[in-house]
Design the sequence.
């Protein structure tokens, strides 16, 4: 049973990592627009960025 | 069946897929286009290798209506100062509101802008809000060129004014999401830790592990208070300072009391810790608040888009030269050159030219009004026939439309009382909870002093409106989401609440009850004349000619020659060997052969023509100098109007038709739809409409249904404003509900759905109050063990969540399919209707 002293903190570390990932993704704007990306991923990849104008 | 027959033989536009008018069909080409706009757009796409666009299952189903404007004002320094910011690596960045964005292929096309316009680095479209973010190299390409190419593809761009506010909101939204995420993670983990404690209580657990779990849950919950939970304490502090009762106050007290008591119990190693309940409470409250706020956001967004109604630039004539100026720079006394098909940018007086003005947007008048020198014209109205020179008398903020828009904003602000009521209710609840907690404390202090504090805290925590906070926003969010799938965009939850009880339903006529465009309604005269008229009208771009083309799709064409158009009058030409004169009564009468005028004196024909003159736009037809026929073009009543109105009347709604159109027209439409005489009001200016709705509102709920700027103020003033399909997109923004499906059937469905949603909300509230009462009762007598509290809290929330999700408020459906099918059927049915 004393393994709990090791496992529980470990679990909390993993939770911390997940929370950090969520905070990062929310702050980088991945949840701003929930509709368009769902549509966008259906489009084939075409070169969207043109050669930079000189 | 008939529909299939028709569409099998039909030639459709290579760009938009809509039927091509017969006059434009080129049988030598495999590609046909319904209009020049579609042809241009097709050419652009093909020449840039973007033909893939046509492979999408879901495409635009409206002809490209490019405005053809120069957009020179987009390059103006004052424009740049207002709307353009500098992005990374020296690029310029702006947000544009695009009209007519609606599907996934629009996203694809708009985001291919870098390929279409060299110099554009990035284009991203938010399809729900029709906002495109464009980043481009200012040295390589001016913004006006980007705007022109968006316009040519059928997405006329408008500057988006809310950029600064938008950025602030986005930050707020992200912060809220972060708080919810953290609160959720903590809640789940605290629950897991306390689950071990409950299991230990039942089966027995060594004291050291019990202590360990209590300390772990304590350590985990502290961050929840420091970060996500802080908002409740700041809210409560603000409420205290303004001496008002706010939901945050009991929440903060319960949270603080629970945490302190739990901490003491953890340290002294006895009694319940409450941490699981507290963590879930923070999480649930944050979620409820987030949902609520998102609903309110959408409503606020709207007013911004209003400004897109008036054109953003105008062509000014100065010293014989024409140049474009932003509308904001117009001054009284300037002379504007307004071409046919353009909107007028300022109020003014016509100084040269004769034309017809379509003021439907401003006044609701369905018939174009003819103007000549000396007539007053207003900003936002459309010049239909021929070029005009207009001397500006009032521009910008002092124009009539600007004043109207200000009224709209004011009425929207004045709607605050509903919100205030909700806050007052919360205040009562707060007071009740605090009093109950104090009572419990005072009473138990006498009976069992050592339990008094525990019982009071248990009561505070258990009565905290966890499920109650979720009950309304959840039910409304689910209903609003489902409604969106059915083509009803609902912006605020209070709209559903108000729609659930019958009140007064005020409907606009043009575009709401009727289709809002000229259609051939009545034809008097021999049928052999029809092909002659149609062949002649084929060469005209006049909106009335369109009415003929739509009505007579199956008729053959005859050769036409020597056609002469007369602006404001009509046209004359030789068709099939006859001299045919088609146009306004005065124009046709002027060309009649006085000696052979026998048929026009026919009393039956004359009477019928008279009837047309009164309620419709008359078009006379004379063949070889004899008045032979007359057509009445008007605005046709929507098919489902009568049935829908009757259904609503049966439910107890009082229906009133309020129109800016001429009284004769309004009365004839009203009578056919079962409106009583006192329920028909015609010739109402936008200001009248607003006043009328405000007067009605004193007597109860008023739902205003309309489609134009002329209704916008009334829509905003009404208890619930409903905008209907096909109206001016930007001005419908003030409406609480926007129906994207044509017809009034959607209105019936909306009201049905609102009633069911309210039932769900009442059920949710009953459930959560029930749980609260049980919990409060147990807590008061000191029987609320932590285990029971831990079960009660989530159960009540889960009941509410499931109850909201599985309720039948609006029928479920795929968002896109419903829109498509209804769009199709409406096209086909209108095309099938024939005038006998």
Sequence:
């Amino acid at each position: 049973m004393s393994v709990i002293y090791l496992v529980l903190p470990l679990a909390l570390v993993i939770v911390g990592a997940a929370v950090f990932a969520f905070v990062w993704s929310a702050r980088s704007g991945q949840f701003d627009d929930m509709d368009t990306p769902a549509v966008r991923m259906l489009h084939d990849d075409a070169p969207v960025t043109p050669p930079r104008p000189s | 069946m008939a529909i299939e027959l028709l569409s099998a033989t039909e030639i459709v536009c290579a760009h938009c897929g809509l039927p091509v008018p017969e006059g434009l069909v080129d049988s030598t080409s495999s590609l046909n286009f319904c209009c020049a706009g579609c042809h241009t757009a097709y050419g652009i796409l093909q020449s840039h290798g973007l033909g893939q666009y046509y492979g999408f299952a879901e495409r635009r189903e409206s002809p490209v209506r490019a405005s053809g404007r120069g957009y020179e004002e987009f390059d103006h320094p004052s424009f740049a100062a207002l709307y353009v910011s500098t992005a990374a690596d020296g690029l310029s960045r702006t947000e544009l509101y695009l009209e007519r964005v609606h599907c996934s292929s629009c996203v694809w096309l708009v985001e291919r802008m870098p390929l279409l316009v060299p110099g554009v680095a990035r284009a991203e479209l938010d399809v729900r809000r029709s906002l495109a973010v464009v980043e481009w190299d200012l040295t390589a390409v001016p913004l006006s060129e980007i705007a022109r190419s968006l316009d040519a593809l059928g997405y006329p761009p408008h500057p988006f004014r809310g950029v600064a506010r938008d950025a602030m909101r986005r930050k707020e939204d992200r912060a809220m999401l972060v708080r919810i995420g953290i609160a959720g993670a903590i809640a789940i983990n605290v629950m897991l830790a306390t689950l071990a404690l409950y299991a230990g209580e039942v089966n027995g657990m060594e004291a050291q592990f019990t202590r360990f779990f209590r300390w772990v849950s304590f350590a985990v919950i502290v961050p929840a208070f420091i970060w996500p939970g802080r908002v409740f304490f700041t809210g409560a502090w603000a409420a205290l300072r303004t001496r008002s009762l706010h939901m945050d106050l009991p929440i903060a007290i319960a949270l603080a009391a629970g945490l302190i008591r739990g901490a003491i119990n953890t340290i002294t190693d006895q009694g319940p810790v409450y941490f699981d309940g507290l963590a879930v409470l923070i999480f649930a409250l944050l979620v409820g608040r987030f949902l609520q706020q998102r609903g309110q956001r959408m409503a606020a967004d709207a007013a911004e888009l209003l400004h897109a109604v008036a054109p953003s630039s105008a062509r000014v004539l100065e010293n014989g030269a024409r140049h474009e100026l932003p509308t904001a720079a117009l001054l009284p006394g300037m002379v504007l050159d307004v071409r046919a098909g353009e909107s007028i940018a300022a109020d003014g007086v016509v100084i040269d030219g004769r034309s017809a003005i379509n003021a439907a947007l401003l006044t609701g008048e369905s018939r174009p009004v003819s103007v000549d020198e000396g007539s007053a014209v207003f900003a936002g109205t459309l010049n239909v026939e021929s070029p005009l020179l207009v001397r500006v008398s009032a521009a910008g903020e002092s124009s009539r439309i600007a004043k109207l828009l200000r009224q709209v904003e004011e009425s929207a602000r004045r709607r605050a009382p509903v919100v205030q009521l909700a806050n007052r209710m919360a205040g009562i609840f707060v007071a009740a909870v605090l009093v109950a907690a104090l009572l419990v404390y005072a009473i138990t202090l006498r009976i069992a002093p050592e339990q008094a504090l525990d019982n009071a805290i248990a009561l505070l925590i258990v009565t905290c409106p966890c499920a109650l906070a979720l009950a309304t926003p959840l039910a409304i969010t689910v209903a609003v989401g489902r409604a969106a799938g059915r083509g009803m965009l609902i912006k605020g939850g209070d709209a559903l609440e108000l729609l659930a009880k019958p009140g007064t339903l005020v409907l606009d006529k043009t575009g709401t009850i009727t289709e809002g465009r000229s259609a051939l309604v009545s034809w008097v005269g021999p049928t052999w004349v029809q092909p002659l008229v149609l062949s002649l009208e084929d060469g005209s771009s006049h909106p009335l000619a369109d009415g003929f083309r739509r009505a007579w799709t199956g008729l053959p064409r005859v050769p036409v020659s020597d056609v002469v158009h007369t602006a404001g009058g009509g046209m004359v030409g030789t068709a099939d060997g006859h001299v045919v004169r088609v146009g306004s009564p005065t124009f046709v009468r002027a060309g009649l052969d006085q000696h052979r005028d026998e048929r026009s004196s026919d009393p039956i024909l004359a009477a019928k023509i008279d009837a047309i003159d009164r309620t419709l736009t008359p078009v006379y037809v004379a063949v070889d100098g004899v008045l032979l026929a007359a057509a009445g073009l008007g605005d046709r009543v929507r098919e489902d109007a009568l049935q829908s109105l009757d259904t609503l009347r049966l439910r107890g709604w009082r229906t009133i038709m309020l129109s800016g159109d001429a009284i004769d027209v309004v009365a004839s439409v009203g009578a056919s739809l079962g409106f009583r005489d006192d329920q028909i009001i015609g010739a109402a200016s936008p200001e009248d409409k607003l006043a009328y709705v405000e007067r009605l509102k004193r007597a109860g709920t008023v739902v205003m249904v309309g489609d134009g700027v002329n209704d916008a103020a009334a829509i905003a003033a009404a208890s619930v404003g409903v905008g209907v399909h096909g109206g001016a997109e930007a001005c419908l923004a003030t409406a609480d509900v926007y129906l994207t499906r044509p017809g009034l059937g959607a209105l019936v469905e909306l009201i049905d759905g609102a009633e069911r949603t309210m039932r769900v909300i009442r059920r949710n509230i009953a459930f959560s109050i029930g749980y609260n009462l049980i919990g409060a009762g147990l807590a008061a007598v000191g029987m609320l063990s932590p285990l029971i509290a831990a079960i009660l809290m989530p159960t009540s929330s889960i009941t509410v969540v499931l109850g909201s999700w599985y309720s039948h408020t609006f029928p479920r459906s795929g968002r896109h399919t419903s829109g498509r099918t209804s769009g199709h059927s409406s096209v086909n049915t209108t095309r099938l209707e024939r005038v006998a």
About this structure: DSSP finds 29 helices and 27 strands in chain B. Residues 1-8, 302-307, 415-421, 814-836 of chain B have pLDDT under 50 and may be disordered. Residues 163-203 of chain B form the longest helix (41 residues).
